[in-house]
Amino acid sequence: MIRHIEFKIPDIEFFENLIQINKNGLDIDLHNDYSCTQVLFNDNDSSLKIYFISDSDKMNRLELIFKNVIILKINFVVSNVLTLDNFSRCKIENDEKLFDYDENGRSLFILEFVEGQEIEVLSKEIFICTPPRSPEND
Question: Rounded CA gap, 80 and 66, in Å?
Fold first, then answer.
């Protein structure tokens, strides 16, 4: 069974660290319990997917999905897996003024990893999905 959490962007506090998520019956700690294994941008639908695998159960996977994305910054060299250290919504700076959204209704999110990698994206929608453990569960 696929379970997902949709974040309502207006409800996300600015600078709140979203690493620990307890919502819709899912209790997720992206820093202590999961490692990032892949980052994938799909230009066809302007989505950014960040894949995680559980440190204790390799069959337990998560996808962090940003939709309607513009990537502002990506700094990545991956040798193995990564540990997410910060995931937060931030203000957008334009002409020395701070804004909640860009002109298209997207909000700024920053992801920083312990190993030094960073991603900054503008996005209208964010989801966390738990894909099925096997094809039989679809």
Answer: 23
Where are the strands (E) in the chain, listed by range?
Answer: 3-7, 20-23, 26-29, 34-42, 47-54, 61-67, 70-75, 84-90, 92-94, 97-99, 107-113, 118-123, 125-130
Identify whether the C-beta of residue 101 lies closer than 8 Å to the C-beta of residue 92: yes
Secondary structure (3-state) at 136 = helix
Owner of token pair 């312990």: 114
pTM over 0.85: no
Mean pLDDT over 64-86 rounds to: 86
Averaged over 87-95, what is the pLDDT? Answer: 94
- Cβ atoms 18, 12 nearer than 8 A: yes
Displacement of CA 53 from its chain's centroid (Å): 14
